[in-house]
Design a protein that fits this description.
CATH topology of the largest domain: Cytochrome Bc1 Complex, Chain D, domain 2
Oligomer: single chain
Protein name: Menaquinone reductase, multiheme cytochrome c subunit
Distance between the termini: 30 Å
EC number: 1.97.-.-
Helix content: 55-70%
GO molecular function: electron transfer activity; heme binding; metal ion binding; oxidoreductase activity
Keywords: Heme, Iron, Membrane, Metal-binding, Oxidoreductase, Signal, Transmembrane, Transmembrane helix
Number of helices: 19
CATH architecture of the largest domain: Orthogonal Bundle
Bound molecules: heme C
Pfam families: Cytochrom_C
Structural class: mainly alpha
Shape: extended
Length: 452
């Protein structure tokens, strides 16, 4: 079933790709387009063009900083490259906006060149038409894009099947009525005979086609409903094949690369995105072959080297000339974890605010299987997996079980600030000695906290 679903999804992605690439052939001059790519790869975790996300909307930002801060493009270059250094230098406007956004840290981008930044600014000044949003990126937009079409197609299949079945029923009813009528009129007995005969002849002729049709419709309906159920369902162990054989064991395990180096947006919000190919290139510009000691049984150096080549194909990097050719190919990772649309799950709540609480509680419950990184409490020992698979069932019961049993760390900076009043109230409500404040006490069992 799961592999079927996988192919179904891949087909949808393929169709989606076909449809959306047609929209991407655009008569724009090069720079804003490259800017768009860079923007999507590096900035969309926190910025949109038209609305505030974590940072301010960036459409027309060049003009805006001029009017609001009296600063120019060179300021923007410094800010985007290293806003921390700019703030530390005492720059007035930089510190002003930092205060204005509650001291939310923007990332630093030392690897963006001056031209890259000019391209991004060109994009924010002159963004192409909105359809461009659907363009698949080398940024591994993951399957988030495929999720909604999948949903829609399934719904469509269900609706069409139901309509067809309804039509069939009406047709049978009409036929039955005609038969009854015929049987009632005695005068027409003779005629009836021939009619009934001709009806049975028709039946003889067509019943196979009819039954075939009903069978097909029934299959479609079952498939639609099954898929719909599976969409809300449980995928523990789900482990699809990916376009590049990327091993977490080799990266996070053998080479001890920090999860958040690649999944950097986990800290800042709702999603913890799959890294863009630019992130891979930070290292793979120089690591073009595999020389590690570790080999997964059945794999060899040639295999790993071939997989690394795929990064170059995707980003259009020519390792011989050490330059980009400009020919890129999107890499569509298949999304493994995917909550239904009606669930709200926020990584930063767990990875930042809940980090210590979750690690402590997990280690208390699993003294022989301790974790060092918060991610592993929910995703399992990803650093030992060559292929990621879901380590928990990610059901409502699973969320709630942890909320009931995990003691909140009321002393971390985040909770001190956000739950100041609540904390005082809870202190009174729960006895001081031994009284535990678990996540349910701060609202972790309220339906509205997890459901839209
Ligand atoms: C992790 C979140 C995050 C990422 C990623 C991020 N930013 Fe920001 N950005 C912010 C925040 C938050 C602010 C508001 C100032 C502050 O709190 O530091 C900001 C402010 C800015 C400003 C100043 C806007 C103004 O109105 O004065 C610019 C320009 C900017 N970002 C550009 C970028 C670009 C370009 C990228 C991608 C290369 C990017 N940012 C990536 C969070 C982010
Ligand atoms: C070098 C970059 C890199 C590092 C480091 C890394 N990841 Fe990943 N991660 C990826 C890529 C690429 C994918 C998508 C391909 C795949 O599923 O293997 C991914 C996928 C995942 C997924 C599945 C996402 C989905 O589709 O639902 C999880 C969960 C995950 N990583 C967690 C972690 C954790 C936890 C760590 C640290 C122990 C970590 N990653 C370290 C690059 C990285
Ligand atoms: C922080 C540096 C770093 C980043 C970022 C990084 N890699 Fe790697 N990658 C490595 C190292 C180190 C090796 C092992 C090389 C060796 O041992 O010779 C490796 C090996 C590989 C291999 C061969 C082994 C395997 O996992 O199959 C592939 C394929 C690969 N990387 C893909 C990627 C992709 C795709 C990304 C981006 C999502 C990425 N890497 C990001 C450092 C990195
Ligand atoms: C409290 C449990 C929990 C913790 C801790 C956690 N995750 Fe997740 N993670 C989830 C859930 C639930 C989803 C599915 C979210 C969805 O589908 O909306 C998810 C999804 C993901 C994805 C797929 C993309 C996405 O956002 O849907 C990645 C990648 C990921 N997590 C990486 C990480 C990394 C890296 C860490 C540690 C820094 C981490 N997670 C910590 C529960 C957790
Ligand atoms: C491993 C334990 C663990 C799991 C599993 C877990 N959570 Fe949490 N969650 C926490 C902790 C700890 C906090 C409190 C963070 C803090 O200190 O503010 C929290 C807080 C929350 C909050 C904020 C509650 C509030 O009142 O502000 C929401 C919403 C939430 N979690 C949703 C979810 C959802 C949805 C899932 C399942 C997909 C989930 N959590 C799974 C540990 C967990
Ligand atoms: C801590 C987070 C959390 C809280 C609190 C929570 N839910 Fe859920 N709920 C979820 C998650 C996650 C799912 C998706 C489960 C899945 O995909 O298997 C879900 C699924 C559901 C479903 C769909 C049926 C199912 O099991 O898939 C219903 C209905 C529902 N929740 C109702 C409620 C109601 C009513 C409340 C309040 C009493 C509530 N939920 C509180 C996280 C939560």
């Amino acid at each position: 079933m799961i592999s079927w679903r996988k192919h179904y999804k891949q087909t949808l992605i393929a169709i989606g790709l076909l449809l959306s690439t047609s929209a991407s052939i655009y008569g724009q001059d090069g720079d804003p387009k490259n800017g768009e790519k860079l923007f999507k790869a590096n900035c969309t975790a926190c910025h949109a063009l038209d609305k505030q996300v974590i940072g301010p909307p960036l459409k027309g930002v060049v003009d805006r900083v001029k009017t609001e801060g009296g600063v120019g493009k060179d300021w923007l270059h410094k800010w985007i490259k290293d806003n921390k250094a700019l703030r530390a230098s005492g720059d007035k406007y930089a510190n002003e906006i930092f205060e204005k956004y509650n001291k939310t840290e923007m990332l630093v981008f030392p690897n963006l060149s001056e031209k890259d930044i000019d391209d991004i600014l060109a994009y924010t000044t002159n963004p192409p038409a909105p359809e461009e949003k659907k363009t698949p990126e080398a940024t591994a937009g993951t399957e988030a894009t495929a999720a909604s079409p999948a949903d829609k197609t399934t719904t469509n299949i269900v609706i069409i099947s139901l309509l067809a079945i309804a039509g069939l029923l009406v047709w049978i009813l009409i036929k039955l009525r005609q038969l009854v009528k015929l049987g009632q009129s005695e005068d027409l007995a003779g005629l009836n005979e021939t009619r009934v005969k001709s009806f049975s002849e028709i039946y003889q002729k067509y019943h196979l086609i009819g039954k075939g049709l009903i069978a097909i419709l029934a299959l479609l309906a079952t498939y639609g409903i099954w898929n719909w159920i599976m969409w809300i369902g449980v995928y523990k162990g789900y482990k699809p094949e990916q376009p590049i054989y990327f091993s977490h064991k080799i990266h996070a395990g053998e080479n001890k690369i920090d999860c958040q180096l690649c999944h950097s947006s986990a800290k800042y919000g709702k999603v913890s995105e799959i890294p863009s190919m630019n992130v891979c290139m930070n290292c793979h510009r120089t690591i073009s072959e595999y020389n590690g000691k570790y080999m997964e049984p059945g794999k060899d150096k040639a295999f790993y080297d071939g997989e690394i080549q795929k990064i170059y194909a995707a980003t259009g990097w020519d390792p011989q000339k050490a330059q980009y050719t400009g020919k890129t190919q999107p890499v569509e990772w298949t999304r493994i974890h995917n909550m239904p649309d009606f669930v709200y799950f926020n990584h930063s709540q767990h990875v930042v605010a809940g980090e210590q609480a979750i690690i402590n509680s997990f280690n208390k419950k699993n003294p022989n299987n301790k974790i060092d990184v918060v991610c592993k409490a929910c995703h399992g020992k990803i650093d030992t997996m060559n292929v990621v698979q879901m380590a928990n069932d990610f059901t409502m019961g699973w969320c709630i079980e942890c909320h009931r049993t995990t003691e909140v760390d009321m002393n971390n900076g985040y909770n001190k600030e956000y739950f100041k009043n609540l904390h005082d109230k809870l202190k009174k409500q729960y006895p001081k000695d031994g009284g535990k404040i678990t996540v349910d006490a701060i609202g972790g069992l309220e339906c509205g906290k997890c459901h839209y």
